[in-house]
Design brief:
about 45% helix, alpha/beta, Arc Repressor Mutant, subunit A, about 15% strand, 2 domains, about 280 residues, 7 strands, Rossmann fold, four-stranded parallel beta sheet, 12 helices
C-alpha cells in the first residue's frame, strides 16, 4: 500500500471537488502550497504518488487524466455522501467571558499561527507555561473557541495529567485524550486499524509495549488529519509520568510531517523544583 501524505491528499481533494473538470497546474500548486513557491516537478511527483496509491499503472489513467501542458482531470465516477463533521465543528464555546482574558494576545496569536502551520501540513508543539491561577486553561479555551467561531474545522483530543497518578498509570493523559477522540466512530475505526495497541488501551482490552505505542500514535497522527487538522491538548504536564514525557520527546521531532498540533500546559517552577524529566526535552 502506498501511503498518502497530507500533500498528496490535498491534491486528491481538489481533483475530487472538481471531478470531470480540468484543474490547471497553477491552481493545484496554489491550493496545495498556498504560501510557498514550488517547482512544477514537485507537483508531478506528488501526482505520481497519488496514482500509485489509487492503483493506477503506467498509461492506465482510470482515475486521473493528464492534460498536456495544462493540468489534470479526475475522470472516474464520484459519488457524494453525507458528511459527519469532526469534534471541532460541533464544539461550543466554553464561555463568552473567556475571550476577555487580558495580556495574552501574543500567546493567542502564536497558538493561531501554529494551527495555521498545522493546516498546511507542518505540525508542531506549543507550550503554555505559568504558575497556578495565571489562566493557562482559559488561554487554551479562548484559542479553541476562536477557531470554532471562525468556522475552522478540526479534530480535538484533550487530556489532563493527575498528581495522584504520576507514575502508577503510564500514558494516562494521552489515553484520556484519545479516548474522547475515539468516540467518533470513523476515528475509532481508523485507530483500531493503524494504532491497535492504543485502541486496546482505550477500550480496556489490553496493553502494549511503549516502543510500539509510540510508532503507532505517530502513524495515527499522519492518517487521521488529511482533511482536518488534529489538536491534542495535554494540561498540567508538570504531573506527567516518565512514559508520557518519552512519548512527547518522540513525537515532537516528527510532527513536522503531520497536520497535528500538540498544546501542553504546565507550571515551570514546579517542574524545576522537582527536576522534571520534561525539562531537557
Amino acid at each position: 500500500m502506498t501511503p498518502i501524505t497530507p500533500t498528496v491528499f490535498r491534491i486528491l481533494l481538489i481533483l475530487l471537488e472538481r471531478a470531470g473538470q480540468v484543474v490547471s497546474k497553477d491552481e493545484l500548486m496554489r491550493f496545495v502550497w498556498p504560501d510557498s513557491f514550488v517547482e512544477e516537478g514537485n507537483l508531478n511527483r506528488n501526482v505520481s504518488t497519488l496514482r500509485k496509491a489509487l492503483g493506477e499503472k503506467p498509461c492506465d489513467h482510470r482515475y486521473i487524466e493528464t492534460i498536456p501542458k495544462t493540468g489534470y482531470r479526475f475522470v472516474a465516477p464520484v459519488k457524494g455522501v453525507d458528511y459527519q463533521p469532526p469534534t471541532g465543528t460541533t464544539r461550543k464555546p466554553v464561555n463568552g467571558a473567556v475571550h476577555n482574558i487580558v495580556g495574552r494576545d501574543a500567546e493567542r496569536k502564536e497558538l493561531r499561527r501554529a494551527f495555521q502551520l498545522a493546516q498546511q501540513g507542518h505540525g508542531g508543539l506549543v507550550c503554555v507555561s505559568g504558575d497556578v491561577g495565571l489562566g493557562k486553561t482559559a488561554l487554551i479555551n479562548a484559542f479553541l473557541d476562536d477557531l470554532v467561531q471562525d468556522g475552522q474545522t478540526f479534530h480535538l483530543a484533550r487530556g489532563r495529567c493527575s498528581e495522584s497518578l504520576t507514575e502508577s498509570e503510564p500514558f494516562m493523559p494521552w489515553i484520556e485524550a484519545h479516548g474522547l477522540l475515539a468516540r467518533e466512530e470513523n476515528i475509532s475505526q481508523l485507530m483500531q486499524k493503524v494504532a491497535p495497541t492504543w485502541h486496546r488501551e482505550i477500550t480496556h482490552a489490553g496493553s502494549g509495549a511503549a516502543r510500539k505505542m509510540k510508532r503507532e500514535l505517530l502513524d495515527f497522527y499522519q492518517q487521521v488529519s488529511p482533511v482536518h487538522p488534529l489538536i491534542v491538548v495535554i494540561e498540567d504536564f508538570q504531573w506527567s509520568d516518565v512514559a508520557s514525557v518519552d512519548l512527547l520527546a518522540y513525537l515532537a521531532t516528527r510532527l513536522e510531517s503531520t497536520r497535528t498540533l500538540i498544546v501542553l500546559s504546565y507550571r515551570l517552577d514546579e517542574m524545576k523544583v522537582n527536576n522534571h524529566p520534561f525539562l531537557p526535552v
